[in-house]
Amino acid sequence: MHAIIQRELDKAIKILSSINCKYAIEDPNGEIIGELRIEAKTKQRKPCKYPPAALSNYIRPFVQNLPEGIVTFIPYDQFERNDLQRSVCAMANKRWGKHTYTTHMLSDGLEMYKYKVQNEQQNII
């Protein structure tokens, strides 16, 4: 470690100790200095609103064999409208890719339209 960095580290430790602070410092060499222990933070996930795969199992029959140029209607059923739309979009992105469909929320369900996609080879002269 460079002398200037060590000097500043020692100064910080001296100040923290003089005012009776507990601390944990990880120096540039990866050594932990101080009496506190650093714990890895884990991200807490929200509890699931629905049973596993409930949304995807509900959506799949509407989306699975949807031909291009057709509008389908997916009722909200027991699902919240934003949750349903989010899951429909995730499934459509995975199956067909971005910008291949659009959705529109109505009061009683979700409309989905799969765009007609031109074959890129048709554009070659």
Can you lay out the helices and strands and say which pair or pack?
Elements: H1 3-18, E1 25-26, E2 32-33, H2 54-63, E3 71-75, H3 81-96, E4 101-105, E5 109-114
Antiparallel strand pairs: 1-2, 3-5, 4-5
Helix pairs in contact: 2-3
Structure description:
The chain has 125 residues and is an alpha+beta fold. It has two domains: 3-33; 54-121, Phosphorylase Kinase, domain 1 (2-Layer Sandwich), CATH 3.30.200. It is built from three helices and five strands; from the N terminus they run αββαβαββ. A hairpin with a 5-residue loop joins strand 1 and strand 2 (32-33). The longest helix is centred in the N-terminal third of the chain and has 16 residues, at 3-18. Mean pLDDT is 88; it is low at 121-125.
Number of domains: 2
Which outline best applies? elongated
Provide the CATH architecture of the largest domain. 2-Layer Sandwich
Structural class: alpha+beta
Low-confidence region ranges: 121-125
How much of the sequence is in beta strands? Answer: 15-25%
CATH level 1 class label of the largest domain: Alpha Beta
SSE pattern, N- to C-terminal: HEEHEHEE
Main-sheet strand order equals 3-5-4
Oligomer state equals: single chain
Query: What's the helical proportion of residues?
Result: 25-40%
CATH topology of the largest domain: Phosphorylase Kinase, domain 1
